[in-house]
Amino acid sequence: MSGFPIPVSVLTGFLGAGKTTLLNRLLKDPALADTAVIINEFGEVAIDHLLVEQASDGIIQLSDGCLCCTVRGELVDTLADLVDRLQTGRIARLARVVIETTGLADPAPVLQSIMAHPALVQAFRLDGVITLVDAANGKATLDAHVEAVKQVAVADRIVLSKADLVTDASELETLRSRLRQINPGADLLDVADTKTGVAALFDCGLYNPATKSADVRRWLGEAHDHDHHDGHDHEHDHGHDQRVRSYSLVHDGPVPFSAIEMFLHLLRSAHGEHLLRMKGVIELSEDPSRPLVIHGVQKILHPPVQLPSWPDGQRGTRLVLITLDMPEDYVRRLFAAFTNRPSIDTPDRAALENNPLAIAGR
């Protein structure tokens, strides 16, 4: 039986971006053995040359041992059914889940399903979001559909498809630049590159399976120029793009748990619908030797966890926010108000350990 939590990858992208083509290629890789693929409708997706037999309840057994399931009702029900099949022995092993969204889908509800359900959060962990962008139609799609911009904004990996159909190299570079502006923290890959395989697309989460340890810098996207991106004053400015902002909040030194708790509570209460994604590592005053890791989508906050120690030696508080129509000045002022106020009453360490992460339920 597979160990928990099981990594979940979300594959998204606008209509015609090539999600199914990429999925077919990935499923032929032995590295994705024991993977369950959840899709919305079999009528919309053609799994090439892999179908062997159709089992009951929307489960299709693929020739390499993968499972393919339709979303029957809520995604939560489908994920819960996979866990039940695993625990009762109807599935021998489950190493990973890949969820392919529809082309018009907002990825946020999918991410929230994984983060918010009390049972599923024990069984699954969000590995990352992979967003495909059609290079031939990407500009027009981003201009016309804010959903496409949101799909790019929340991605951990952005994959450019159909670049060979673009004859003007400057147009292709303009699109690449635009994607980097929308989401400077994501890796930007080309689907035609032989290196764009399982190793490059998966394992986006906090833990690096190669080192068996947390890789905070990589997870936060700090290998990229992330320090400040305000969506304005760029050579190639576009209407929907201006609504998306990606920026970091940094505070040197420890922060009281109650200050972070109240900051997150007020932020999500006032502007939660506009918070596309948030990742953070926090140095707590109550226990500075163990960083607190937070991960949120809109108003939903994954139950925070404390790492055993600082993996990269760089302490302090670092939050990365990707927002839509959220006033950045408000966020920065709110963050400063709580991180620069030592007079806030804070619980002692025992109280923190007895009720460690109450902010998850707020």
TrEMBL record:
A single cellular component GO annotation: cytoplasm
Family membership: Belongs to the SIMIBI class G3E GTPase family. ZNG1 subfamily.
Reactions catalysed: GTP + H2O = GDP + phosphate + H(+)
Pfam families: cobW, CobW_C
Record's protein name: G3E family GTPase
Signal peptide range in chain numbering: none
Matching SUPFAM superfamilies: Hypothetical protein YjiA, C-terminal domain, P-loop containing nucleoside triphosphate hydrolases
GO molecular function per UniProt: hydrolase activity; nucleotide binding
PANTHER family: COBW DOMAIN-CONTAINING PROTEIN, COBW-RELATED
Source organism of this protein record: Mesorhizobium sangaii
Entry annotated with the keyword Secreted: no
Function: Zinc chaperone that directly transfers zinc cofactor to target proteins, thereby activating them. Zinc is transferred from the CXCC motif in the GTPase domain to the zinc binding site in target proteins in a process requiring GTP hydrolysis.
The organism's taxonomic lineage, starting at the top: Bacteria, Pseudomonadati, Pseudomonadota, Alphaproteobacteria, Hyphomicrobiales
Entries under CDD domains matching the protein: CobW-like
Keywords (A to Z) from UniProt: Chaperone, Hydrolase, Nucleotide-binding
Residue span, CobW C-terminal domain: 244-339
